[in-house]
Amino acid sequence: MTKGSKLYSILTFKCPHCHEGKFFVNHPYHLPTTGETLSECPVCSQSYSPEPGFYFGAMYVSYALGVALFVTIWASCNWFFDNVSVWLQIGLIIGSSILLGPLLYASSKIIWANFFIHYSKDAKHGKKEATHT
Ligand SMILES: [Zn+2]
Fold it and tell me: Ligand 1 centre and the CA of 48: distance in Å?
């Protein structure tokens, strides 16, 4: 996967603007800081919160990811196995929602940020020029 695609930023948790700086304070499974973003990119200085309440919209993405997880588990249970009980399916869905919760939460925030912040090949150089002036 190459820099320049939004998928690169999302899967590597890198800055949506320069694809080099960290996006999150810590790993999603570091529970005290789950999904907590830095205030700006350490490499290109792109603000990660362009306006107050910016990440409220990420709940729509989170909802979509949750539905995708639900459908994937439900379809897998019914296509690949015979006679999986409803309670086992519900248990699998609840269990995987809890286990993947921090990852889905963090993913929803960086996907949301990628809707509005776009990649720029010169993002890093822009900062260097700005600091010299
Ligand atoms: Zn950056």
Answer: 9
Instruction: Give residue 131 CA to ligand 1 midpoint distance, Å.
Output: 15
Q: Is-contact 71 64, C-beta < 8 A?
A: no
- HSE-CB at 70 with a 13 A cutoff on CA atoms is 8
Q: What is the pLDDT along the chain (133 residues), one digit of tens a residue?
A: 788 899 999 999 999 999 999 999 999 999 999 999 999 999 999 999 999 999 999 999 999 999 999 999 999 999 998 888 999 999 999 999 999 999 999 999 999 999 999 999 888 766 544 444 4
Report the first-to-last Cα separation within the chain, whole angstroms. Answer: 35
Furthest CA-CA distance within the chain = 69
Q: What is the pTM of this model?
A: 0.86
Number of structural domains (the chain) is 1
HSE of 118, CA atoms in CB hemisphere, 13 A:
1
Residue 42 lies in a domain: yes
Residue 14 maps to a domain: yes
